[in-house]
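Appendix C. Worked example: phosphomevalonate kinase
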Amino acid sequence: MAVVASAPGKVLMTGGYLVLERPNAGIVLSTNARFYAIVKPLYEEIKPESWAWAWADVKLTSPQMARETMYKLSLKHLKLQAVSSSESRNPFVEHAVEYAIAAAHATFDKDKTDILQKLLLRGLDITILGCNEFYSYRNQIEAHGLPLTPESLASLPPFTSITFNAEDSIGENRKPEVAKTGLGSSAAMTTAVVAALLHYLGVVNLSSLTEDQSHGRKDASNLDIVHVIAQTAHCIAQGKVGSGFDVSSAVYGSQRYVRFSPEVLSSAQNAGMATPLTEVIDDILKAKWDHERTKFSLPPLMALLLGEPGSGGSSTPSMVGAVKRWQKSDPQSSLETWRKLSEGNSALEMHLNTLCKLAERNYNVYECVINACSLLTAEKWPERANEPSQAEIVKELLGAREAMLGIRYYMRKMGEAAGIPIEPESQTHLLDTTMSMEGVLLAGVPGAGGFDAVFAVTLGASSKNVTKAWSSLNVLAMLVTEDPRGVSLEDNDPRAKEITAAVSAIQLQ
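Step 2, the predicted output written as structure tokens:
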């Protein structure tokens, strides 16, 4: 009786840095890159003498990293202790396991607690798998002499082994880093493990989820529990309370997000060894989570494209630190920059929402305009507007572009003032080139910026040409598209699927 749950990676399209502070909103798109967690019992049956046991066995396997860790779980304190291979600890999964089990204890009555105990005595066998899109395979593609194209990426087997970045030239013996693409693998992984465990233990029932329920309709309470436990596990594992947009999109899918007040997690942060974990989790489940999320997805006939420029990733925490220091040292001008950024973010959101409404109102006209503009550079779009209804659509498209250019301008300004490369010069050149291509609506650096990745939003079928152009600019277009779904229960082990999502994605385009 294996339970398989998956959660998506994310792209923060607007709200970089600002989303750290309420009431600033960020627009975050969830993607087709998913993290999977498979939970099943470790033993067929309970041994007769197990009623006296104080520990349960937990096995955590990560096939892509060729890692397996065995733990003992204290049934009294709900804490994990590694009994093997401690050099490869995964704090995100460890906290996810402890907190999910504590959530079961905190919410169950006596009868259910007995069932829970029996379930735990059979041990937990947990496997985690991340889609290839979370990791950078650019070096392997180049090493094999393959072209930098999505087709080369699609030729990799699903859940390919992950390579570690080479050690730095100074020869320091640092822990090797996994080369990532910035899609939020730790948030997606934590969320998938929490969701799979909560469902397996009977705390939530995710099988009844339909598309609508994930956005505040009648059955959101199941997802809300997943959200609270995943947010808590992720923040504690990270050692800091971030904005949480990555976990929120992993749970609920694409959305407009305003962060929760960090105080809701104070009981977890301040819990000493003496405080029972069930009490901590009970507090957190009852706390007033005041984050806001509104349904959001790209307008019809628009595609999200992500490109990997191959200059290595950037460290988000150190960039955030630099921005915070700048805010302290120059409150006047930093406030002004943030105000302008916030205005730009709101404007972009408004134009995209209006485009969704215009598509609903008259799809035929909308489709006709989008397809026409997909073949032209932006300055020629007004030529396609021969009547008021077409002109209205073109006006919103150009408004969205204008807003994006403003956002980029102030992000660069902030980066210069804070002394960090939010939109490095190499990225500026690439983004300007991309925005001048036919059918490109927007281009920018997602999230905190830096060298991680670039994104573009394209109209109609124009993404093929952008992919080709990127390839010639030494940018690898990733097999990532927007998928507004959040956390999901899967029918079976994703490794059993013959046709991979990557291959079908290529045929769709």
